[in-house]
Write the structure tokens for this entry.
Amino acid sequence: QVQLVESGGGLVQPGGSLRLSCAASGSTLIRFNSMAWYRQAPGKRRELVASISGSGITSYDDSVKGRFTVSRDNARATATAYLQMGSLQVEDTAVYYCNLHDRGSDYWGQGTQVTVSS
């Protein structure tokens, strides 16, 4: 069973930085799976922020291009995805979720709160 454990959220001032981590385990194919970061602000739909394939190909939502960087470390049966967030804005406030897609199934982390406020 695939498990995702997130960490790294918190409170930061506008213009600040945070790094989120997502540790994935439970399948020997994890290093080949795409991983992604989503976020959901209060009263809004969950939206895709950034994704990274098993080989390291990345994509970003236009709202975070140039400010956020997604990366990953792969091991034999585990992977850790990171989301480095910079130049944070109040509009980035949301619960951030890690996602892994494996053979037609989607797995989600528990979510981590990011609050950008002065």
